[in-house]
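CORE FACILITY INTAKE
Project code: CF-77B
Contact: R.S. (postdoc)
Sample description: multi-component assembly, three entities in total
Requested service: structural model of the whole complex
Turnaround: standard
Below are the sequence entries exactly as provided by the requester. Do not edit them.
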Amino acid sequence: MTGQIVVQFLTGLASAASLFLIAAGLSIIFGVTRIVNFAHGSLYMLGAFIAYSLTQRLAAGTAYGFWISVLLAAFVVALIGVVIEILMLRRIYRAPELFQLLATFGVVLVVQDAALWIWGPVDLMGPRAPGLDSAVDILGQRLPEYDIALIVISPVVLGLLWLLFHRTRWGILVRAATQDREMVGALGRNQAWLFTSVFFVGAFLAGLGGAIQLPKGGADLLIDLNVIAAAFVVVVVGGMGSITGAFLAAILIGELQAFAVLVLPESTLVIMFLAMAVVLVVRPWGLLGRPMGEHAPGQAAEPLLRPATPRARLAWAALIGLLLVLPLIAEDFTLTLTIEIVILALFAASLHFIMGPGGMVSFGHAAYFGLGAYGAALLATTLNTPMELALLAAPVVAGLGALVFGWFCVRLSGVYLAMLTLAFAQIAWSVVFQWYEFTGGEDGLLGIRRTPWADDRIVFYYLVLAACGVAIYAMRRMIFAPFGYAVRAGRDSRLRADAIGIDCRRFDWMAFLVAGAMAGIAGGLYVYSKGSVFPDEMSIPRSVDGLVMVLLGGVQTLSGPIFGAAGFTWLQDEISRLEYWRFILGGTIIGLVLAFPQGLGGIWRQIEALIRRRRATGIEAGR
Amino acid sequence: MTVLEVRDLYKGFGGVQAVAGISFGVAEGELLAMIGPNGAGKSTCFNMLNGQLRPDGGSVHLNGRDITGLPPRDVSRLGVGRTFQITATFGSMTVAENVQTTLIAHHRGLRGLWRPAAALHRDAAMALLERVGMAEQADRACGVLAYGDLKRVELAVALANDPMLLLMDEPTAGMAPGERVELMALTAEITRERNIAVLFTEHDMDVVFTHADRVIVLNRGKLIAEGTPEDVRANRRVRELYLGESAEAG
Amino acid sequence: MTTRRVFLAAAAAVLAASVFGAAARAEETIRIGEINSYTRLPAFTQPYRNGWELAVEEINTAGGVLGRKIEVISRDDNGKPTDAVKIAEELVSRDGVVMLAGTFFSHIGLAVADFAQQKEVMFVAAEPLSDALTWAKGNRYTFRLRPNTTMQAAMLAEEAAKLPARRWATIAPNYKYGQDAVAAFKAELLKRNPDVEFVAEQWPPLFKIDAGAEAQALANADPEAIYNVTFGGDLAKFVREGKLRGLFEGREVVSLLSGEPEYLDALKDEAPAGWIVTGYPWYAIDTPEHRVFVNAYRAKFNDYPRLGSVVGYNTFKAIAAIIAKAGSTDTDKMIAAAEGITVESPTGPFIFRAIDHQATMGAYVGRTALKDGKGIMVDWFYADGADYMPSEEEIRQMRPSN
């Protein structure tokens, strides 16, 4: 029995190794640049693929060939990271917060299809490490030799990183930059060099993580997204920017998973996120993290939020008019697509409500969309509740969820808050996913039909248009009402808001509630538009879709999420007929990010500014 | 009448006594300056008054009411206005909206979900901005203002909740010398006409000796001198403390 | 509604050229809508696509069906059921397909089946294995080709029951398919051997297996035999860790689907030997119709067929047969034609049963072995699906009447 436990423990340590490497890279990059790098999993995946290709060519089957391949792969990935930083991220450091996240999401899509194109669709089984391809006997149990190698590698890397950060000028600079944002701004031209080099190191670690897990995992096209969530969990549990924290957290998560498999095999989906939720509730900045300013250096101040100008009102009226006559001129499927766009516009607007005015980024907003959807669907399927009532219940269910989750979330800030929302969304998702008897699990709930009067597509279209229109308008009113000012005050300056007697936490909580309930309305309508609901509706990709819509549309404008939802949904539908559509979508996102750092909703503003500048120079020239 | 009454305040950080037994009071309409070298305990003392720090011992009374350890938002609601060393305003709002938001908060109207806030307390806000000389810039974004103008906005915001006490942390820090005197003159004028008690910390001795009614001097967490500007200027211990700065102070 | 028609007419007039073009094309060809998880699971869906492309090419070269050519509009569902439903709607309402086909994941198959019922469109599910598709959630419009989870589990349980092992452990991906596959195997094995006991159950998350920990946990339970449902990358990792840790030494392993080339070939020389599996030994099936298929496939794609290739091929051969028999693309007529139809295929003839719309296509059951650094199936036999179905009475009880 002791032997079994010891070996299980060592197995957990081994699986912590590559987790530590990728998390360390992610943590360093975030610490210095404040970029939430979604593409870090893609770098890890590239590390695995490149190392695979190299091991097939470089003195295949020899120990030095294997290890040289691993290091070389990490180096190549580091160069790819540098290219991404120089060609893309460097141009948008001054964009609104988290806009870089959108760009890195574009990279994820591009890398997915590029890897598919280069390495093909088949899972590649990693080579065994020469010389370490058998097992050793430990207390009567067998442990693979390569596991022991992994157990040794991660503390060695930790030690090397420690030396790098404490014994070199560069490392000291990096540590200073992580702790003091002002200092980064003061670096001037050296800032670019620092950021690039940090990306080199971060990408190197990601590539190394992907490469050294080859003998245990191999390379396939799903590992990028599989590993990125785990990496974020480790970074956040350890404390962002803390390498030692990432090390401890990787071991904690690795061991938790190893023993959960033993004790409670069904918990494998959720154990990691449960652990993160517990850690964050007890320690809001992770195990070894410290409170830090969230704003990146040189970031543009929040722009003025103004009600619509007469011209904008006219444009809105025209849009609404067009939507109203759409059923008369459009074919059936266009109407179906528009229904989806309108519902997702409400979803995106509800996310924007907490992200924009509230300044609280949610990585798990799909939870409330899904709670609304499942609330309505379960009422319909189990209690035969009529559609009207189920639709009314949707925001109540979602709102209750937001009330509970929000209570914990508003106690945190920045990325920690975002990750806690993600943890709660994953917990909600796993409940829905695993509770077959009640929710239908993966198979979802089917056969949810509309009330006869709304069965007609056109009638339902108007119902959706009315409900979403009213909901979006109500949120707009709230933003310009005292409530919205109170929420915005808390985002702009906690210090000042506190000093004039605003209970920021309470207002954040209420904003959470509103956003959750609104997302619930969208979820309820979604169920009745599709006739079915699946756990996908509360999964990470759905949350990411929402984020992409908001960021694509522009987080600083109220119309942004609406255009973001429309643009994203329409584009995806248009190009998903093509084979390499992810490449096109990713490329389009990157292009838009670089061309319009204010988002789609900000395009108009940018054009106006351009016209104004033209006029000004025109006048000068005229003189 | 005494508005702020501080009795025997203590605060330590890991064995270092930042504030070691300080007592003083501020009366209606009085401008009290708190001075002292860096590390004397001014900021710590200040943050215990506004609620950001909880004292280890002693008490703070506002108009006879014990406010020791209350959080900043409660202190504010009881009638304490604040300005900060580095201005803190709401960047996504206009100058007028900054003041309006404060007025709405003061009138407990922040839960409104429907009526546009821009229409609420507009007149009162404009009157305050008029008073601090910022009416013309009322509809500009706070994010684009000159620093001196921001300080004036902060003053208007601090006055908006109709305070009986104003806490000003380095009110003139970061301003050009000419602007400093102007701002403090304005502050003094307004607070006297409204009978508001003012406690401010300050590095600029010109400002202190020109505008303060009374001065308290802190060193190593203790109060070492108290009195009119003249008394304090003449105080031997203060002179020793400010040896390098005595020329400037004199 | 009248106004709407007028507007539609006007719109049609404006877009006359393109609309006419579409109408003209629709006259020429019979459009079939095809949906599958091409980007989510390319390794399994690409051979499948090759399979149906070959079938469609053969059908059209031979003159098509009802004198018209078959045109397949194939779309990717991203592995998401809601996307699949949206695409199904687009295929039906915009592209004018007469029938839907495809899908891999069970939940997506179920979603499209629900859509088919709602919109009264015929749907031939190709790959999904969920029992519910033709039984508990079966409907009039949905047909399914592959033998379902219970049928395949029963084929394996029959072999497992012959083993002396009494203490069993299971490992399956943590989602509905895995749960069903374990439950079905347990039930079938207990039916045959009431004294077996199940001493451990492991549920790794799909495609995120922590193989070392899972293998170790199984070893700790010390079972006499193991039933495995993991597949794809999970299977490869599980096999490697299990071998290193001696998990399979002295233990029988019964493994669902693992003999399919899609999964077995990825293991290369690490393929386990002696496992009892269901699969597809294409290299050894020596019937004339299968030889013709393999030769045609190799000629067209310069690659050997996987099981998915057969599934894709059989699906579209079946669709062509159904339309030919119906003599029309009217949904009711096609359903009537499909019920009880016999389809000839490389793997032998199969019937779409009238009672549950489940095809009797079977699976190959055998043991794995290593040959020339590659896993193969030996001692295999073809288990006809018809022999592993519940009684008609049982099916009637499970299947909703509609």
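Facility notes:
- The first strand of chain C starts at residue 29 and ends at 36.
- Chain C touches chain A through 68 residues (CB under 8 Å).
Invoice: internal transfer
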